[in-house]
Amino acid sequence: MSRAARVLVTGAGGQVGVDLLDVLAGTIPWGGDASFQPDAPEVRDGEFQVLGLTHHELDVTDPDAVIAALRHTRPDVIVHLAAYTAVDRAEGDAQTCFAVNERGTANMSRGAREVGAHLVAISTDYVFDGRKGAAYVEDDEPDPLNVYGASKRAGELACTPDDSVVRTSWVMGVRGKNVVHTIAERATSGADVRFVNDQMGTVTASSDLARALVVFVRERPGGLWHVANSGATTWYDIAAYVGSLLGRDETFATPIESRELAAFQVATRPTRSDLDTTKFAARWTALPEWRVAVERLVHDRRYLGSTS
Fold first, then answer.
1. By CB count within 10 A, which of 27, 69, 230, 305 is most buried?
2. Is 148 a catalytic residue?
3. Considering only CA atoms, which of 252, 236, 240, 246 is closest in space to residue 188?
4. Given 84, 126, 136, 148, which residue is catalytic?
5. Which tens digits make up the pLDDT trace of 69-88?
């Protein structure tokens, strides 16, 4: 019998992290779909030996701490989820944002090389400026509009070609804070919502992303990959759909333009940053359509009884 692959997960307390720990243990996470197995075999009992570290347990900006952790655990694969993701706050906190997203990723990549591990690093659609007018493929030239996007692009460049860099977007899970929870809470309370209809992107259910990441843990392909649920959408369309799932009519969500949020959003967002996931789908299986994923999320959050 082959030895269980050792997997170290940084940022394990985040919404993708908690789902990934479930998936690697052979459990379907909240909001997940047992039938989504992009590389065919389900996760076997004992297939992985997993250590999840939160940002309190490992400061990825500290190279000595990173090396010490990797030498101690000797992982075969590192899934690097730890990140600074506060897009608006980053505009006034660039030093910290770059420390985590660029230097932290560089530390993980160097550490992975030292201990002979494969690195899977997570990036974002915000490395693009949105001016292409079509979905972005892996070979498109990045041109970030904000500090967060620039820091994540710098993190990508800190990786080697042997590392796997996974770009994803608009991540939302049952556990953790995200826009879908806010929409659902307002829908069930009787309140209405206003959301932009001039920003287009791709939804990614954290449960589906977590299962897709198992592919990278198993096969360690290296290179750049776009991973998100199928189909592009807008925040307004997401809000209207969540409202419909919860019994609200067409008056629940009102479309607005991004300029109406100028007083509340410090960072500039790309107007169209949807990711083309053809490369992933051609080698394995496409992630489910975004409405299917959102429906699972809305359904399961009611049973969980908490969004924490």
1. 69
2. yes
3. 246
4. 148
5. 999 999 999 999 999 999 99
